[in-house]
Amino acid sequence: MNGFFITFEGIDGSGKTTQIKLLDKYLSDRGFEIVLTREPGGTALGDEIRDILLNPKNKGMSSRAETLLFEASRAQLVEKVIRPAIEKGKIVICDRFFDSTIAYQGAARGLGVKEILDLSLWASAGLVPDLTFLIAINVEICEQRMKTQQKKPDRIENEKNEFKEKISRGYLDVAEIFKERFEIIDGHMKIEDIFFTIKQKVEALLNR
Ligand code: Z5A
Question: Which CATH number fits domain 4-38+86-206: 3.40.50.10610, 3.90.79.10, 3.40.50.300, 3.40.50.150?
Fold first, then answer.
């Protein structure tokens, strides 16, 4: 029996990692085999691509080069990690997938939602998540959260708030295209309240 593929999306600092950790523990405690991964990265090659993509030294990178690097990392991750795990009946939880490319590169960088969707489906060899959580949150609130983390901003985090507003709108457009798999969650709620909703939606998927 095939497993499931669950993804988390949102602007940086929206709380994806926090929720992924909770979901991993919840499902592992119930005996499910979980594969946790992230984009860009998740393979040796993907991690090298991640370093190139996020390094502030590469601030002159063109939007098309950036997009192709995200897609290259994804192609490797799908073929080597995600698809084999799903075929073995595992639950794959991925921090970002191609909806990020549609929102960041397609919408915010202006490369086009339809173009990036087609390219992403080619890179993923047609693999689409079963369930996607979009943690929707105000850009300024995210910024405050990131400041308290005292982490040096990477190349993409260095973008202005206007860029992040475009990403948020881009996400809503993708959610509209893929209504059947998207769950939009209010990221301003308490961590435990967000997780309560996520748990319910995941249970519904597992019982399908
Ligand atoms: N990118 C792209 O452009 N195109 C693509 O195709 C892909 C990615 C795949 C990857 O960054 C960058 O690449 C990303 C998008 C771009 N760039 N940006 N900007 P990353 O993987 O290094 O990081 P990230 O995914 O952007 O986010 P993050 O830093 O890991 O944040 P997060 O996982 O969303 O949030 P968190 O770590 O769970 O929470 C942040 C803080 O908020 C933390 O202190 C928490 O304790 C706190 N928190 C979390 N939830 C709450 C609630 N509910 N209330 C209060 N505080 C909370």
Answer: 3.40.50.300
